[in-house]
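This section describes the prediction task in plain terms. A model, or a person checking by hand, is given the sequence of a single protein chain and must write out its three-dimensional structure as a string of tokens. No templates, partner chains or ligands are provided. The sample shown here is typical of the held-out split.
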Amino acid sequence: MRLKEDRKLHKEGWEVFRISNWEIRQEEIILELLADLREFIGF
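The expected answer:
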């Protein structure tokens, strides 16, 4: 389902950065996720 949504958004010109519930619950990787998100948005 998410893949279909992502394709639709890409066709409309959006970029998608998904984070799973599992990843959010892993305290040891939160800083890595934030770094990836900052890179993704060019912050």
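For orientation: The chain has one domain: 2-41.
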